[in-house]
Amino acid sequence: MKRSDKIIYQYGNLAGWPYFYAKGLSDLGEKSISVKPVENDFVKDDGTMARRNLPTHKSVCRASDNRLKRLIKKLIFFLRNRNRIRLIHYHSTTMLPGFFDIIYFKLMKIPMIITWGGGDARIIGIAREKNPYFYLEPDEKRDKETINKLRFISKYVKNVAADPELSEYSRLFFDKIYILRQPIDLKKILLNIPQRNLDCPRLLHIPTYQNCKGTKYILEAVERLKKEGYNFDFRLMEANLTQKQTRKRISECDIYVDELRVGSYGMTAVEAMASGKVVITYIRDDLVNEYPEGLPVVNSNPDTVYNNLKNLLEKPELISEIGKKSREYAERYHDTKVVCSQLIDIYKEIGMK
């Protein structure tokens, strides 16, 4: 197959990132497609399934497929596509059980890179040492499994592109680490910067994975502020909305209260910044300087969320000012064109021809 016929594959789900990377790369002249292993359902805290309808070019399996059917479909997909791959960018997961695909691609000298999300690469023992608010109890068995997984994958995939927190764990095993930011298609975002002197600011929180997000502490702060007579509208958004519906709800708020216990921000925080909102989230002290200068989030943890919310309610002009800075930050560092231009440079550095 001619090199010009080969494609950059974005393999995985990860909050819709693979699709936005693939589309952004293709728009810049580097043909790419996104492939999800399974349709985009996810499990909520209560064990039920939610459908987010995250965009993709192709899904290999249906959510209803049993284990054997998924294995067969993934194997067929691998066999049909293995010679079309110019570079493969994994997102949280590899293609086949036993990591057979990464062994094959290494033998065939196909460039590979992997991006982590959520807890995919997080070592709980280290996270607890660095983060006094971390939400998980010690789990030596899980840490051992994570370490073994990272150690094995790093024998074949030498490159990682991730956020500052997950990059920290990756440095223990992988040869090359690149800081990569979440991509956002600004044309798809409803921009609605809050007015300058709000009489009744609108607060929004999405209580998926409540222990992780610190929902309890957010609710406690909100209840305390209400009892003290502060005027605001607080809403908890349903956790089973699609990405499009979620973005609409975010556009209707003034302050988005994200999460207080992880120590880095995720995709929904980026969407809120792009929409021109104040984002309240927790960034670990030792990671703050790993982000670009001017990060506009209101850095909050369970101990400070009450005071930070109170300050915003007492100085509503800050809400509009921070909202403008949030949008500017998203344009400068998370716009798909910006991120994908950086990604092309990374791909060339790791051997893409």
UniProtKB/TrEMBL annotation:
- One Gene Ontology term of the molecular function aspect: glycosyltransferase activity
Q: Name residues in a coiled coil.
A: none
SUPFAM superfamilies, per database record: UDP-Glycosyltransferase/glycogen phosphorylase (SSF53756)
Signal peptide bounds: none
Q: Which domain of life is it from?
A: Bacteria
InterPro entries, from UniProt?
Answer: Glyco_trans_1 (IPR001296)
For the Glycosyl transferase family domain, which residue ranges apply? 243-328
Query: What is the designated name of this protein?
Result: Glycosyl transferase family 1 domain-containing protein
- Record organism: Muiribacterium halophilum
Question: Which taxonomic lineage does the organism of this UniProt entry have?
Answer: Bacteria, Candidatus Muiribacteriota, Candidatus Muiribacteriia, Candidatus Muiribacteriales, Candidatus Muiribacteriaceae
